Amino acid sequence: xxxxxxxxxxxxxxxxxxxxxxxxxxxxxxxxxxxxxxxxxxxxxxxxxxxxxxxxxxxxxxxxxxxxxxxxxxxxxxxxxxxxxxxxxxxxxxxxxxxxxxxxxxxxxxxxxxxxxxxxxxxxxxxx
Length: 128
Fold this sequence. Notes:
The chain is an all-alpha fold. Helices cover 48% and strands 0% of the residues.
C-alpha cells in the first residue's frame, strides 16, 4: 500500500487500526520518545502557554484590533458583574439546584470538580 493510499484510507475511515511489528530495541526507543512527549507538557510549559495568551502577546496577530473591541468579554480575571449590555440576551431555563452538565469519557479529578463548583457558585452569587 502506498503512503498516498494509506492517507486516503485513513481520511475516509476505511482503516480503523494500524499495528506495527518492531524490533525490541526499536520498541524501547518508541517508549522513550513517548515518555519525552509527556514531559513536554509539564508545569513550566503550561505557565508559558498561559503567559502567551496575554494582550501583549496578541499584538502582532491580525485579530488584535477586533479582539480589543471586545476586551470586556476577555478579561484577565472573571468579574463579578456582567459586561455592558450589547442587546443580545441568551437564557437557558433550568430547575433550581440543577448541576452543570459535563459529559466526559473519564471522571474529573476532585480538585477540578471543586474548582468548577466554586466557579458556578460565584456566578450564581453574582446573579448570573
